[in-house]
Amino acid sequence: MTYIVNDSCIACKYTDCVEVCPVDCFYEGENMLVIHPDECIDCGVCEPECPADAIRPDTEPDMEKWVEFNRKYSELWPVIITKKDPLPDADERDGEAGKMEKYFSENPGEGG
């Protein structure tokens, strides 16, 4: 089992999760985070820290696409280990439907 980040993170990018991760397996894109599935040790401490409920175990139904999505972008984006402020519109975007089509960016974040 591993944990993944899904599209609920897009346009919010809360980083509460990165502070509690004992293995630094979060990677930062321009407007979301992902978890490297091969680095995640399945401890689950990140899941309750996410205000957007964007971190889920891969054992839930239809998670295969998110495992591969997280793998792809964790190999392209820089690691993030420090909590940062969420994106400016995070509170109003939290829970919004269709965020992948509306807002997703493949651009890397700053990391750090």
From TrEMBL:
Cofactor(s) in the UniProt record: [3Fe-4S] cluster; [4Fe-4S] cluster
Molecular-function GO term, any one: 3 iron, 4 sulfur cluster binding
Superkingdom assignment: Bacteria
UniProt biased composition (Basic and acidic residues): 95-104
InterPro entries linked: 4Fe4S_Fe-S-bd, 4Fe4S_Fe_S_CS, 7Fe_ferredoxin, Fd_C, FdxA, RnfB_subfamily
Domain 4Fe-4S ferredoxin-type: residue ranges: 1-30, 31-60
Any single Pfam family the record assigns to this protein: DUF3470
Region of interest (Disordered), residue spans: 84-112
UniProt key word rRNA-binding: no
UniProt KW keywords: 3Fe-4S, 4Fe-4S, Electron transport, Iron, Iron-sulfur, Metal-binding, Repeat, Transport
UniProt cross-references to PANTHER family, sorted A to Z: FERREDOXIN, OXIDOREDUCTASE
Described purpose of this protein according to its UniProt entry: Ferredoxins are iron-sulfur proteins that transfer electrons in a wide variety of metabolic reactions.
Name of protein: Ferredoxin
Record organism: Sulfitobacter aestuariivivens
